[in-house]
Amino acid sequence: MTRRPWRAPDGPAAPSVTGMRVLVTGGAGFIGSQIVETLLAGGHEPVVLDALLPSAHPEPPRKPPATRAAVPRIVADVRDRAAVDAALRGVHAVCHQAAMVGLGKDFADAPDYVGCNDLGTAVLLAAMAAAGVPGLVLAGSMVVYGEGRYDCPAHGTVRPGPRAETALAAGRFEPRCPRCGAELRPGLVGEDAPTDPRNVYAATKLAQEHLAASWARATGGRVLALRYHNVYGPGMPRDTPYAGVASFFRSALARGEAPTLYEDGGQRRDFIHVRDVAAANAVALAALPDRPAGTLTAYNTGSGEPHTVGEMARTLATAYGGPPPVVTGEYRLGDVRHITASSQRIAADLGWRAATGFADGMAEFAREEMR
Ligand SMILES: NC(=O)c1ccc[n+]([C@@H]2O[C@H](COP(=O)([O-])OP(=O)(O)OC[C@H]3O[C@@H](n4cnc5c(N)ncnc54)[C@H](O)[C@@H]3O)[C@@H](O)[C@H]2O)c1
Ligand SMILES: [Zn+2]
């Protein structure tokens, strides 16, 4: 395939799909650092900008591998316009991973989420517009959909609202048909499904997409938003309120305790390995020059293989040789019951699909803790 040259505003044309200079915001984080590795392996030139948020980088900080020693690393906030301007010099495209992640502790966190994720994105995009950087790959999230897709035997595809606290407290975790109250069958959400963010973090992730789409229209830029599912794998944050569920389970197993399941463990998710997510970013960066100017396209980025949280806990416990998970019946109001999406579009358009299977990926993840 031939590609049009992808010219940095003040630099040479990127000769092909290798040799791109890419600013990776949040490049010291779990996913960002894996993207840096993948870009290096692909012959690209990553530059990292990361504020090293204490919530994401508990002491002592993890030592980056030797391969990353030569990667320029700017410790700054994406809201710091001067730092972002400097980081963008000679850059062909931006891979925007910096964000505050997770559900947060309570609503008091809202200004921090909005500041980091949305004001931060706006500052970055304004700097890209000024510097003439034409392409962006955005770390999106499946949280923009709210609940997944559900089908009622009588009413077809329906959209249940947020679950009532009384239902959750009574142990009724499955959303019901809003029209007839029947049990629903969960399905796979496509990218054109309506968005319905259910918490502050989700609202900020959706706003990032809207801001990026506005930037693309205003500047003729190109954006690919990768809506990641539940990412796990080496380097996953642990023991912070923002860590993902796989990390909590593994930490419990390391303490000799059983993983504890919220609700009844029947929540369906799509667990995607961080190496696969990094590969999707590399593929998306390479595809940017071929996209129509002025557009944002969103892609679900998942394994396409739904599993329940309970299955994941059991698989990890077995791989670890630890006690089986226990159901607590506890719940969190902001949680959704099932969210799994089809990742067909990214496979069809960009040729990317996940390479790491659930059993292999989880076994490797459990072993990482045992080392
Ligand atoms: N981990 C998942 O399962 C998952 C799922 C969907 C989407 N995402 C998205 O992927 C991206 C990366 O997440 P992650 O899991 O690697 O989280 P992470 O916390 O490990 O990494 C995020 C990095 O961004 C940095 N950062 C945060 N705010 C910043 C700011 N204002 N300025 C500069 N740096 C800042 C942090 O210091 C951290 O190093 C995020 O955008 C997140 O929303 C993650
Ligand atoms: Zn119905």
From TrEMBL:
SUPFAM superfamilies: NAD(P)-binding Rossmann-fold domains (SSF51735)
Pathway(s) served: Carbohydrate metabolism; galactose metabolism
Lineage top rank: taxon: Bacteria
Domain NAD-dependent epimerase/dehydratase: residue ranges: 22-156, 191-289
Family per record: Belongs to the NAD(P)-dependent epimerase/dehydratase family.
Name this polypeptide is given: UDP-glucose 4-epimerase
UniProt organism field: Streptomyces albospinus
